[in-house]
């Protein structure tokens, strides 16, 4: 018999269906509670191993209120709810559940989610043991800095890398998500096989399935030869799904199936191919918001979010700026064969006082440019006036622009400065520190025509 479960659900029919599903899966249901008060009593009497928790319950207290009590007791739980609005999801996330099931759901989905939840709980216990056994965080080559937030991220990378756990890397653009993914691969058992990088934002929507899973010859017009997809290329290695938040919903469904079944089917093919691939995904989006607004599947979110790693922005780790600047100075002085070996105190102060919207990538490009421009062996000051400032919001403003409106305006300003040129030297992609295909994808999404000017 598997673990003992307590169902906290105020709708009897739903609770009874759950009980039947759980019994079929081999779980022992020790009771059903319709309110927080009933749940407290049953927890005391029955000592369940897990709690299945609805949000809206009888009485004044909600499932979220009970979740905080369960956290204090170190009693693992996962939510079962039909409520997915953003404010609720944020409140749910704050309680650190081990899963979230959206009603209605299939019996198979419930069993899979319980397996994931159990894995996450056991992983958390192992992580704590490793942390106590190895309190010192060692440096990792290619990740520069000593700030507390960065050390926390490095510690998580070192813990998760040797496992088979899926990893979700979170952070703003330019914080080093791809570098973190490479480190996870390098420290894993998959490091003798390739890491395949997929920029989800740059995949043409009509070709996503073909790019990810491949196609057979003749699968569609223009498919003149067999194509091996990214997942097959990464077999026995790691696949890094960058900008996962940009993947369309229909593609998310197919990706979820691959994660669940560990097999793919080429487009136009009739046989399944088993794959052994470590999944690392990354996004600069707030996925809870994307879920709440219907742009990202909740089941896929929890499949990927087994082990999240948050990379801090550069403005959150300003104590690392001098170390990073020095590293990039040495790197680009050697590459360009320039005798530039120091940055003045005044110039360093400029770097520390800047807000860094482009994070580490922006700092790297600034140092590279100034190494080439330096007239002596020291960078005396930086010209930050050419970088568009972030304008603070004025109190009392009637209309706040959405992030999409701000991004569209920013891209159009860059295109105007570059006379409509997107890629190549002097193009908007170079100015915005983006890959050209990423910029083209953003332009298409935002409805910006290349010849707008």
Describe what you observe in this structure.
The protein is an alpha/beta fold and about 450 residues long. Helices cover about 45% and strands about 10% of the residues. It is built from 18 helices and 14 strands. The strands form four sheets. Strands 2-1-3-4-5 form a five-stranded parallel beta sheet, with helices on both faces. A hairpin with an 8-residue loop joins strand 9 and strand 10. The protein is globular, with a radius of gyration of 25 Å. It starts with a strand and ends in a 7-residue tail after the last helix.
Mean pLDDT: 85
Radius of gyration, in angstroms, nearest whole number: 25 Å
Q: Report the count of strand segments.
A: 14
Fraction of residues in β-strands: 5-15%
Order of strands in the sheet with the most strands? 2-1-3-4-5
Distance between the termini: 69 Å
In DSSP terms (H or I, runs of 4 or more residues), the helix count works out at 18
Oligomer: single chain
| SS-based class | alpha/beta
What percentage of residues falls in helices of 4 or more residues? Answer: 40-55%
Largest sheet: 5 strands, parallel
The low-confidence parts are 388-398
What is the approximate shape?
globular
Write the layout of secondary structure elements.
Layout: E1 4-8, H1 12-24, E2 28-33, H2 36-46, E3 50-53, H3 63-73, E4 77-81, H4 86-94, E5 100-102, H5 107-133, H6 148-160, E6 167-170, H7 177-186, E7 195-199, H8 208-213, H9 230-233, E8 238-242, H10 249-261, E9 263-264, E10 273-274, E11 278-283, H11 287-292, H12 298-304, E12 307-310, H13 321-336, E13 342-343, H14 345-353, H15 359-373, E14 378-379, H16 403-417, H17 428-431, H18 436-446
Parallel strand pairs: 1-2, 1-3, 3-4, 4-5, 6-11, 6-12, 7-8, 8-11, 13-14
Antiparallel strand pairs: 9-10
């Amino acid at each position: 018999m598997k673990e003992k479960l307590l169902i906290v659900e105020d709708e009897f029919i739903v609770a009874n269906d759950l009980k039947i599903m759980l019994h079929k899966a081999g779980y022992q249901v020790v009771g059903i509670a319709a309110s927080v008060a009933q749940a407290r009593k049953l927890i005391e009497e029955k000592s369940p191993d897990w709690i299945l928790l609805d949000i809206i319950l009888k009485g004044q207290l909600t499932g979220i209120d009970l979740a905080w009590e369960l956290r204090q007791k170190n009693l693992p739980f996962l939510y079962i709810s039909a409520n997915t609005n953003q404010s609720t999801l944020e409140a749910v996330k704050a309680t650190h559940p081990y899963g979230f099931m959206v009603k209605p759901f299939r019996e198979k989905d419930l069993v899979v989610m319980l397996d994931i939840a159990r894995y996450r709980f056991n992983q958390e216990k192992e992580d704590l043991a490793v942390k106590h056994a190895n309190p010192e965080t060692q440096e990792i080559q290619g990740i520069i800095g000593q700030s507390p937030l960065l050390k926390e991220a490095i510690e998580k990378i070192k813990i998760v890398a040797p496992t088979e756990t899926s990893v979700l890397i979170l952070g703003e653009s330019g914080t080093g998500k791809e570098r973190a993914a490479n480190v996870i691969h390098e420290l894993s058992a998959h490091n003798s096989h390739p890491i395949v990088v997929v920029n989800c934002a740059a995949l043409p929507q009509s070709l996503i399935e073909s790019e990810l899973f491949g196609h057979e010859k003749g699968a569609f017009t223009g498919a003149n030869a067999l194509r091996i997809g990214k997942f097959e290329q990464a077999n026995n290695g790691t696949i890094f799904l960058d900008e996962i938040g940009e993947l369309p919903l229909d593609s998310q469904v197919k990706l979820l199936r691959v994660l669940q079944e560990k097999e793919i089917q080429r487009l136009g093919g009739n046989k399944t191919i088993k794959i052994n691939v470590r999944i690392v995904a990354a996004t600069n989006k707030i996925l809870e918001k994307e879920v709440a607004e219907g742009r990202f599947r909740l089941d896929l979110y929890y499949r990927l979010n087994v082990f999240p790693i948050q990379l801090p922005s550069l403005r959150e780790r300003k104590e690392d700026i001098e170390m990073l600047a020095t590293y990039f100075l040495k790197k680009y002085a050697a590459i360009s064969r320039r005798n530039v070996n120091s940055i003045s105190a005044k110039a360093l102060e400029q770097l520390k006082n800047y807000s860094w919207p482009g994070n580490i990538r922006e700092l790297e490009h600034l140092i590279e440019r100034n190494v080439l421009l330096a007239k002596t062996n020291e960078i005396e000051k930086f010209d930050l006036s050419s970088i568009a400032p972030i304008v603070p919001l004025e109190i009392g403003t009637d209309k706040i622009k959405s992030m999409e409106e701000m991004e569209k305006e920013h891209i159009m300003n860059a295109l105007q400065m570059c006379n409509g040129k997107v890629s190549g030297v002097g193009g908007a992609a170079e100015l915005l520190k983006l890959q050209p295909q990423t910029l083209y994808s953003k332009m298409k999404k935002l409805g910006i025509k290349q010849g707008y000017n």
